[in-house]
Amino acid sequence: MTRNKSTLPIQEYLKKEGPGYPFVLSSRARLARNLDGVPFPQAANEENLEIARGMVLEAVAEAVSPQREWSMFFGEELSRDELEMMTEERLISRGFAEQPRGKALAVYFGAGEGIVVNDEDHARIQAVLPGAQFMKALENADKIDGKLESEVQYWYDHKLGYLTSCPTNVGTGLRVSALLHLPALSITGEIAKTIAALGARGIFVRGIYGEGTGVAGNIFQLSNRKTLGVKEEEIASTIDAVVKLVVEKEKTSRKVILREQFIETADRVSRALGVIERAKRMFFFEALELISLVKLGIELELLHIKDFNILHVGAAISPYHIRRELEKDTSDEDVNTKRAPILRRMLDL
């Protein structure tokens, strides 16, 4: 089942704005589920993985997507470019991309919904929406979960809840997360205090690509730590409340830099725009930092150019999204050289 890499679309939610924009970029609800009587993926042999994959994908075909709106991909049949592009859009993990054999992905590109099969758990159901829509994302994930459970039996303990490969997910198996763009908190240095305060409240703070990744483009991922002994709705409500507090801190920091660092801020965002306008090549993480500053400049009315969605632009200038536009066997230098004009085109410069 080999496909041309150019046929993979960019997910629709990356192009859209939702409640809380431009501070809150997206909301995600992810449920970890495992099949009763089948070893966890890390302990499974090839036969076990094949059994689990078949059961989950058959359930998707029968109950989740009877009208075939969802696309299904076997990990080992995806090209390296496809795997990397899916990682760049946060459809799959780095671990999936590096060891795809026995894994699978079922995805509804138009709705921001997907099921990752045999990564850390037999099924990781996720629903992503633009902006701050945590309850709605949870509702969407729960609907998929219910349909899947009508076809398969989950590994469930009446005292602990859903059993998962990682003990930190036991219970509800739910992670609710938000992607936030927080450039002013970073500029003022208040972001370190904010992260410490969130940690004390049981909130993970990570980079855009999740666990084990650094922060790039001043985009932060916030998610719940506790999954045991708490209801799903409580988790979503907690993330919603925490996000509102962080957004207010970002708004306050923006007022501070306009009042106390006006010239420095205007110079910083103008220099970022100047680099984008003139650069002959651009590294990916450098580009993310530049578009973050330009986005801030637009929102503070310091720059008067066309506004843009930072998630959409960030995905489009990712390494393997650029490789899609180039010939095979493209070098990193070719990608970095191509990134500069692509970014100018997307910003109408």
What is this entry, summarized?
With 349 residues, this protein is an alpha+beta fold. Helix content is 44%, strand content 15%.
Q: How would you describe the overall organization of this protein?
A:
- The protein has 12 helices and 10 strands.
- The protein is α+β, with helices and mostly antiparallel strands.
- The protein has 2 domains: 5-247, Glutamine synthetase/guanido kinase, catalytic domain (Creatine Kinase, Chain A, domain 2), CATH 3.30.590; 261-346, no CATH class.
- The strands form 2 sheets. The chain has an 8-stranded antiparallel β-sheet. Strands 6-7 form a two-stranded antiparallel ribbon.
- Helix 1 (46-64) packs across helix 4.
- The protein is globular.
- The relative contact order is 0.13.
- Residues 1-6 have low confidence and may be disordered.
Helix-strand pattern: EHEHHEEEHEEEHHEEHHHHHH
CATH superfamily of the largest domain: Glutamine synthetase/guanido kinase, catalytic domain
Q: β content, as a range?
A: 15-25%
Which strands sit side by side, in order, in the main sheet? 2-3-4-5-1-8-10-9
The CATH class designation of the largest domain is: Alpha Beta
Give the termini distance in whole angstroms.
40 Å
Principal-axes geometry comes out as globular
* Spans of at least 5 consecutive residues with low confidence: 1-6
Helix content: 40-55%
Instruction: Give the C-alpha Rg.
Output: 21 Å
The largest sheet, given as strand count, sense and whether it forms a barrel, is: 8 strands, antiparallel
